[in-house]
Amino acid sequence: MELMTIAPWHARPHRGKVTSTDPAAIAPMSLVESERTFRSLFDDNPQPMFVLDLQSFRYLSVNAAALSLYGYTREEFLALEQSDLRVLGQAAQLHEDRLALAHGTKLHFRDTQHRTRTGEVIDVEINIKPLAFAGRPAAIVVVSDVTGRVRLQAELEYQALHDVLTRLPNRALFTDRLDHALARRRRDGGLLAVLFLDLDNFKTINDGLGHSAGDELLRNVAQRLSGELRARDTAARFGGDEFAVLLENIKDAAQVAQVCDRIASALRAGCHIRGTLVSVQVSIGVTYSGDASTSAELLRNADGAMYGAKAHGKACFRTYEPAMHERVAQRLTMESDLRRALDEGGLRVHYQPVLALPGMRVVGIEALVRWQHPARGTIPPADFIPMAEANGLILPLGRWVLEQACGQVRTWQREIDGLADINAAINISPRQLEDPAFVDDVRRALATSGLRPEKLVLEITESTMMRDVAAAATRLGELSALGIRLAIDDFGTGQSSLGQLRRFPVHILKVDRSFVETIGHDQVARDLLSGVVKLGESLGLDVVAAGVETREQALVVQSMGKLYVQGHLYSRPLDAEAMTAYLMTRRRVQLSQTEGVERPVASCDEHLSRRDGRRAEDQRAVL
Ligand code: C2E
Ligand code: MG
Q1: pLDDT of the residue at 30
Q2: Ligand 2 center from residue 540 Cα (angstroms)
């Protein structure tokens, strides 16, 4: 570019008196010298450049950098027509550009394309400046090859609108297309549908087979999804395992249902990823253009309908209903409230004792989380754990409960006589079990609290284990290797078979509350419980009867032999302070029993009745 500011070598002869400020005064050059200098600046310049005759429009001179850029020999280049390189653009423009140059106007073209000798099109930026060359009107053309920059820019623009992994449009492009489709619909009528898809079992596959296999699977899903759509429909990936589809000009809901079925069966058919046949399940939410007027509303509706599909047992599709809107709004508020509670100390752990029969010794404490909501009061876990599970908050939440409970139980072990051996029982949700960092979390909680591994019991429901048997067996094996113990929670409610049970390093069976509930009057429930107790004995597993509420139930349970119990009859879940008081009272009861003193049941009952409003009579029966 420097060259453009240098006057043509014969255009400015150095004549007359030179002043000291004139640069020429520093080094006055002869014409020959000046010409030689320019020639060398031209020939050796790394910037491609050539000289164009403004009368014949042939090339008069070309430098080595330009020959290398275009791939011609000097002779070939000088024989080219101007249009061979398309230096001045298309024919109409060419004429105007020639006129401008003839009038001494400099030209600059930012985005233009040239063709090389091999026919390859390159992106160039060019500056053209008129000058005189050997006494003829000419122009010097300086070329910058910007192909790399233009391609990079195009790639960046593409990436801003596409998902890099699957090459599908991303949320931004999808929303833009949806906006246009809505505008077209307002003008021309017609019906459009938005589908929101979430893969049900992606996390398990991703963790089980590894992340690169997960990526491969997502690419495969993208291909299959696109394969089931018409050319005018749009499939997009919103991130993670979330996809969206825009169906334009549809006839009716039946047509959309068909598309959903086709997508579901294409994904279910499975594909081979690293030698494993992987079948994918998908939950789909559907909404129609009539349900909302903006793309944001439609997407929110489809998302809400997808949650409806998940809640309905997954692997199905659900169509948006206005009532869902309320639920989505509530869910979003709850989600952000829970996030805040987690950050700002709005969660509490309550504790419920597990006692050994006979003797009623406290052998363990189950940690049960509660949410102290500023406006809604205490929220039970059933009302927020599923949501935390769905949005991933269960991971930090579960980690927090783990740390709290290990620390608290260790304090009781140290500070209350006779409790040095009690267990901490903690509920673990599927997502935690699937989390590769979980084993480290457990290790850290043990190290920080000083709780011995064999004193930690992780409670896992049957359905969590059965969700992905192979993956669960691996993770539970790792946990068991740490020395901790595993309990199957809600035992008897799932479909686990004995054969499958043996695949897991299980130590404790917690019989579901529903069995204990009817045990007082239902012989079948009684037989089932005694069957589980025998099963436990033969497999060397401890059995806990959960949810003992009445004296009647307690008596039946006691008759079954060696068993552990938990339930409102003994204590409701209490906060740490109240549980400390309970444990101290129980300790005094135990001591007085061993010393043969009459049991001070009343004091314990008073304490518990005050707290729980329960009948002291029930207490006396078992303490
Ligand atoms: P779970 O593990 O089966 O816990 C026992 C549930 O039964 C607790 O309900 C407890 O309060 C209740 N319960 C105990 N004894 C009785 C009784 O005699 N009668 C009746 N009717 N209920 C009794 P809660 O605290 O509402 O917890 C419900 C479920 O929430 C738990 O069931 C557990 O699956 C889950 N959960 C609680 N805390 C956590 C946690 O920190 N992490 C995870 N992932 N899940 C948790
Ligand atoms: Mg439990």
Answers
A1: 75
A2: 20
pLDDT the model gives residue 294? 92
CB atoms within 10 A of CB 568: 15
Considering the domain architecture, whether residues 222 and 79 belong to the same structural domain is answered as no
Q: How far is the CA of 369 from the centre of ligand 1 (A)?
A: 8
Q: Which ligand is nearest to the CA of 425?
A: 2
Residues with CB under 6 A from ligand 1: 352, 368-369, 380-382, 385, 398, 401, 427-429, 459, 489-490, 513, 547-549, 566-568, 573
Ligand found nearest the CA of 368: 1
Residues 458 and 362 in one domain: yes
Long-range CB contacts (within 8 A, 24+) of 319-327: 319/253, 319/285, 319/286, 319/287, 319/288, 320/285, 320/286, 320/287, 320/288, 320/291, 322/291, 325/300, 325/301
Give pTM, 2 decimals: 0.58
Residues 210 and 281 in one domain: yes
* Same structural domain, 413 and 478: yes
User: What is the span of the domain harbouring residue 242?
Assistant: 162-320
| CATH number of the domain to which 276 belongs | 3.30.70.270
Question: 144 with 184, same domain?
Answer: no
Tokens of 47: 């910037």
Question: Domain total for the chain?
Answer: 3
Closest approach atom of ligand 1 to CA 573: 11
Residues 398 and 472 in one domain: yes
The last residue of one of the domains, among 320, 335, 363, is 320
Atom of ligand 1 nearest to the CA of 569: 18
Ligand 1: atom nearest CA of 405 is 41
Predicted local distance difference test score (pLDDT) of residue 602: 31
Cβ atoms of residues 465 and 496 within 8 Å: yes
Asked if residue 540 is part of any domain, the answer here is yes
pLDDT computed for residue 197 by the predictor: 97
Neighbours of 212 (CB within 10 A): 11
Ligand 1: distance of its center to the CA of 380 in Å? 9
Ranges in the chain, pLDDT < 70: 1-29, 87-92, 493-500, 594-623
Residue 500 has what pLDDT? 64
**Nearest residue (CA) to ligand 1, atom 11:** 573
CATH number, domain with residue 422: 3.20.20.450
SS3 content of the chain, % helix, strand, coil (to 5): 50, 25, 25
Cα separation, 493 vs 507, whole angstroms? 18
Task: Specify the pLDDT at position 313.
Answer: 76
